[in-house]
Structure formats: C-alpha cells, structure tokens
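Wed. Picked up where I left off yesterday with Elongation factor 1-beta. The coffee machine is broken again, so keeping this brief.
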Amino acid sequence: MSFSDFSKVESLKELNQFLTEKSYIDGTTATQADVTVYKAFQSQYPSLTRWLNHIASFTEEFESLPAGTAPAPAAAAEEEDDEDVDLFGSEDEDEVDEAAEKLKQQRLAEYAAKKAAKGPKPAAKSLVTLDVKPWDDETDLEELLANVKKIEKDGLTWGAHQWIPVGFGIKKLQINLVVEDEKVSLDELQQEIEDDEDHVQSTDVAAMAKL
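Structure written out below (tokens, as returned):
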C-alpha cells in the first residue's frame, strides 16, 4: 500500500498492518506525511496518545511496576476492530494543544515528585592541602598554627598537619582541610591566614581534590 492509498485506512488494525514493514509513512525518512498522520491520530485520540507517550516514559521500570488488571486481549482486539479511524479528518488544534499542555504539566509534576523523593543532593566538597610559610626560623610555629586554626567558617573543617623543612632551619606548615565549595572561598581563606603578618609570609594550595 503506497501513501497515495493511505487515505483508505479505516481502523487501528489496518494502520498497524500498514506499518508492519515500514518505519515511515512515505519513503525511508521522516517526512510531512508522518507529521500529518501523527497529528491526525493525536487529534482523533488525544487521550490514547497521551497515555502511550506517558507509559513509554516508564520503559526502564516495566519489570518493577506493581501488578494491575489489564483488559482481556480478545476484548481489546474487538474494540480495535470496531473503532474507525479518520486519520485525515479535521483537526481541532485547541484540543491538541490542550492535551499536549496537560501531558507536559503531568510530566513536570512527576519529575518534581521523583526529585523530591530522592532528597537534596549532598553538598560539593573539596579536600585541600595548604602550605603556610613563616617569615623565618625565629617565627613561633605553634602560634602560627593556633592562629590558622582559630579561623572558623561554616563549611570549613581543619584536618591533620605537619611541619616540612624548606631550608635554612625554616619549616613550613602543611595542613589539610575540607571545604564546602559553595560556602568557602579558598582565596578569601588564604587572605585571612595571610592577614597574620607577624607569623605568615605566604600561603599556597599544594593539592586539591573533589570529594
């Protein structure tokens, strides 16, 4: 059956038969012929179209969906045979637009419900190793460490530290910390540490990794 004969299709069963060995209504690619038939079907059966599109969104969950009562196959086939399809009848664009809008709103509501059920995403965090260099070998390193750890911020957690020789009897402080990325700016934290001008010469980020 060619597309020129397609206007003779009178039932869902015939439409299904027509598409048995075809991917498109006319030719080997999607054309306006497919759009015309799709819109005609959607106009004639907006509820069925909405249902098919909606159920298709559950494809990955088919095996886990709860049991339900499906119509008897024979009854469903009988209804199909009795139903005439006017695929090229007049379109009511308002009905099509309304059905599409309802489907859109329904999917948005389902997405929002799934997102709410999963709960908020955990805050993005980074593990940072910070080098803090003193002025010289006479700098009180314990006071330097105490001043660094005095800095408290929401989203900042200080970790382990060690002293690393850098030459000429000078040792730098290397300290680990965990920060919540949205709450703590490393640039501002480094500046705050360097404000201790009596003890700190400079700071550098030695390493950083996302958690």
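Quick read: Helices lie at 12-18, 32-44, 46-56, 73-82, 93-118, 141-150, 186-194.
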